[in-house]
Design a protein that fits this description.
By secondary structure, the protein is an all-beta fold. Helices cover about 0% and strands about 50% of the residues. The strands form 2 sheets. Strands 2, 4, 5, 6, 9, 10 and 11 form a 7-stranded mixed sheet that branches. The protein has a 4-stranded antiparallel sheet with strand order 1-3-8-7, with no helix packed on it. The protein is globular and about 40 Å long.
Length: about 130
C-alpha cells in the first residue's frame, strides 16, 4: 500500500509560480512511477508529468506544460515535487499526485487509469 499526500496549492496571479509537494509513504520505492495529473471543472483528468523514482527520469505532457513545469524528487524526504512557473489561467485545476508500481519495464504511463495510488488533490487557481 502507498499513501500520497499533496500540498502546496493555492491562488496565484498569471505569470507566477507554485511548487506542489507529494509525500509518499508505505511501499513506494525506486521502481515506482510518480505522476502528476490535473482536473479542471467539467474536464477529464489529464496527465501533466511523471518521474521514474530510480532513474530520476522525467516525462511531460509536451503541449501544455513542457518548459514551464518541472518534476523532481527528494529521496531523503520520500517527496516528489512539481515546480510550476509562468502559470496561466488555464492551469487552474485540482492537481493530483499518483503512483504506479513497482514497474520493471521501460515505458511511460500517461493515463490516469494506469496508476494505482492517488493523493487527495490540491487546488491551484491562477487569476488573470
Amino acid at each position: 500500500q502507498v499513501r500520497l499526500v499533496e500540498s502546496g496549492g493555492g491562488l496565484v496571479q498569471a505569470g507566477g509560480s507554485l511548487r506542489l509537494s507529494c509525500a509518499a509513504s508505505g511501499r513506494a520505492n525506486s521502481f515506482y512511477h510518480m505522476g502528476w495529473f490535473r482536473q479542471a471543472p467539467g474536464k477529464n483528468r489529464e496527465f501533466v508529468a511523471a518521474l521514474i523514482w530510480s532513474a530520476s527520469t522525467t516525462y511531460y505532457e509536451p503541449d501544455s506544460v513542457k518548459g514551464r513545469f518541472t518534476v523532481s524528487r527528494d529521496n531523503a524526504k520520500s517527496t516528489v515535487y512539481l515546480q510550476m512557473n509562468n502559470l496561466r489561467p488555464e492551469d487552474t485545476a485540482v492537481y493530483y499526485c499518483a503512483a504506479k508500481g513497482p514497474v520493471y519495464v521501460r515505458r511511460e504511463y500517461r493515463r490516469a487509469d494506469e496508476y494505482e495510488y492517488w493523493g487527495q488533490g490540491t487546488q491551484v487557481t491562477v487569476s488573470s
